[in-house]
Amino acid sequence: MGRHVVEAASAAGHEVVVLSRANGADVLTGVGLAERVRGADAVIDVANTTTLSAAKARAFFETATRNLLDAEARGGVGHHVALSIVGIDGIDASYYAGKLAQERAVAAGGVPFTIARAGQFHEFAGQLLSGMSGPVAVMPKLLMRPVAAREVGAHLVRVAEAGAVGRARDLVGPRDEVLADVARRQSAFDGTRRHVLEVRLPGAYGRGLASGSLRGGSDALQGEITFDEWLRGEDHLRG
Ligand SMILES: NC(=O)c1ccc[n+]([C@@H]2O[C@H](COP(=O)([O-])OP(=O)(O)OC[C@H]3O[C@@H](n4cnc5c(N)ncnc54)[C@H](OP(=O)(O)O)[C@@H]3O)[C@@H](O)[C@H]2O)c1
C-alpha cells in the first residue's frame, strides 16, 4: 500500500517523505519519526504487521499509533490518516483486534484524524499464496469485496487532502468475491498450479470472515477495477 500512496501523492504534486524501516524510520521504536513528520500537512499510516495473534496485533498497532501521534503532536501535524478494514466491528479477534485497537488509539490520540477503511486488496490472495509453500494452499472461508490497492492509495491521498473528518466513507471493490475462488484464479493465471483448499476457521475470527460483514454496506464507495482486470493488469504483472 505504501508504494501506491507514494505514487498517488507524488502524482498529485505533494512532497512525500517515506517512513519505513528501510528508510531509517521505525514506528515501534520511534527512531527517525520526529524529524521526518515535522511540518507535514498530513501523515498517512499504512504500516503493517503480519500476525494472527490478537495480543501481537494490538501491541504493534497501539505502539505504532502512539509513537506516530507523539511525533505528529510535537511536529505540528494537523491530520493523521489511518488505513483500516471494512466491516471488522464485530470481529475483535486475531489480526482484526489490532486494527480495532489502532482505531481506538487514533480516536483517543489528540491529533485531528480520519480513519479510512478499505476492503481486502486484490493483492491479498497473492500475499497469502506467497506465504505458503507446497502444492496445497489453505485459505480461510472469507467473503469479501476486494479492491485494487492502487485505488485505495489514491483514495487515501484524497482523504488526507480533505482534512480531518473522523471517519471517511468505506471503500470496497466492484464485485463480491470469495477468497478461495480468487486464489484459484490467480494460481491458474500465474501458472503455479496450487490446489487451493478452503477451510472454515473456528471462533469469532472465522465466523467473522465467513459472515459477509467484510463486504461492507451499500453506502460504501466502490472502486472500478475488478479482480480479473487487476490480474491481467500492470500492478500484478510487475509484482
Ligand atoms: N492487505 C489487505 O488486504 C488490506 C486491506 C485493508 C486494509 N489493509 C491495511 O493496509 C495497511 C498496509 O497493508 P499492506 O498489505 O500494504 O502491508 P505490507 O505489505 O505488510 O507492508 C507493511 C509496511 O509497513 C512497514 N513497516 C512494518 N513495520 C514497520 C516499522 N516497525 N516501522 C516502520 N514501518 C514498518 C513496512 O516497511 P519496512 O519493512 O521497510 O519497515 C512495509 O512498508 C495495513 O494497515 C492493513 O491493515 C490491508
Topology:
Blueprint: H1 2-11, H2 33-37, E1 43-45, H3 54-75, E2 80-85, H4 94-108, E3 113-118, H5 124-130, E4 136-140, E5 143-144, H6 149-162, E6 166-167, E7 171-172, E8 177-178, H7 179-190, E9 195-199, H8 203-211, E10 221-222, H9 227-231, H10 234-237
Parallel strand pairs: 1-2, 2-3, 3-6, 4-9, 7-10
Antiparallel strand pairs: 5-8
Helix pairs in contact: 1-6, 3-4
The structure holds NADP nicotinamide-adenine-dinucleotide phosphate.
Written overview of the protein:
The protein is α/β, with parallel strands linked by helices and 239 residues long. The chain has one domain: NAD(P)-binding Rossmann-like Domain (Rossmann fold), CATH 3.40.50.720. The chain has ten helices and ten strands. The strands form four sheets. Strands 1-2-3-6 form a four-stranded parallel sheet, with helices on both faces. Strands 4-9 form a two-stranded parallel ribbon. β1 (43-45), α3 and β2 (80-85) form a beta-alpha-beta unit. α1 crosses α6 and α3 (54-75) packs parallel to α4 (94-108). The longest helix is centred in the first third of the chain and has 22 residues, at 54-75. It is globular, with a radius of gyration of 18 Å. The two termini are 13 Å apart. The mean pLDDT is 97. The site of NADP nicotinamide-adenine-dinucleotide phosphate has 21 residues, from β2.
Q: List all distinct small molecules, including ions and cofactors, that are bound in this structure.
A: NADP nicotinamide-adenine-dinucleotide phosphate
In CATH, the homologous superfamily goes by the name NAD(P)-binding Rossmann-like Domain
- Give the percentage of residues in beta strands: 5-15%
How many separate domains?
Answer: 1
Which CATH class?
Answer: Alpha Beta
Query: What low-confidence regions span 5 or more consecutive residues with pLDDT below 50?
Result: none
CATH architecture: 3-Layer(aba) Sandwich
